């Protein structure tokens, strides 16, 4: 199965789930985006590494890196490997110099570790086809600061919960998806995408 390379495009606080963040991955050679909702700790671990901030004491992912170096393990790549019922799964591909191993992990942890080893992130076409969001030309803009919080327009009706999304027609959902992408609100876009996929 062919792998597609992903890049980290943005990290913003969730507007419907307190303490959660939307990590936006983008197709390296295309316009599809893959938003993944992650926890606060993992978002902090990713942001710290992106901004090259050195904490006073090692975080869990730094400890993993030190452990791997001590025992001569290297990380080769991160793969967003599966999507089941809206939950993403990932693999950390590592090597001891002779054999390669795949370690099951949450995508947020895998990416936080992958950043510390400067390795590429991949996924499969089947996952991007199911969960990817295609940016229109109007919405295809720079996501800005990776740690910037994206404000939500006060004039927009909030379809943040599954219950409210169920009340909209498919055409209305498509309109809301376009609006969310235009506003770079990837967390909302992910929820709308999930509801549209549920209906198919």
Describe the structure concisely for a colleague.
With 200 residues, this protein is an alpha+beta fold. Helices cover 36% and strands 30% of the residues.
Describe the structure.
With 200 residues, the chain is an alpha+beta fold. The chain has one domain: Bifunctional nuclease domain, CATH 3.10.690. 36% of the residues lie in helices and 30% in strands. It is built from seven helices and eight strands, in the order E-E-E-H-H-E-E-E-H-E-H-E-H-H-H. An eight-stranded mixed beta sheet has the order 6-5-4-7-1-2-3-8. It is globular, with a radius of gyration of 17 Å.
List keywords for this structure.
alpha+beta, 7 helices, 30% strand
Strands ordered across the widest β-sheet: 6-5-4-7-1-2-3-8
CATH class: Alpha Beta
**CATH fold-type name:** Bifunctional nuclease domain
The tally of beta strands, per DSSP, is 8
Query: How many separate helices?
Result: 7
Helix content class? 25-40%
CATH architecture: Roll
Strand content: 25-35%
Number of domains: 1
Give Rg in angstroms.
Answer: 17 Å
Largest sheet: 8 strands, mixed
Structural class: alpha+beta
User: What oligomeric state is this?
Assistant: single chain
SSE series: EEEHHEEEHEHEHHH
First-residue to last-residue Cα separation: 24 Å
- Shape by Cα distribution: globular
Unreliable spans: 138-163
CATH superfamily: Bifunctional nuclease domain
Mean pLDDT: 81
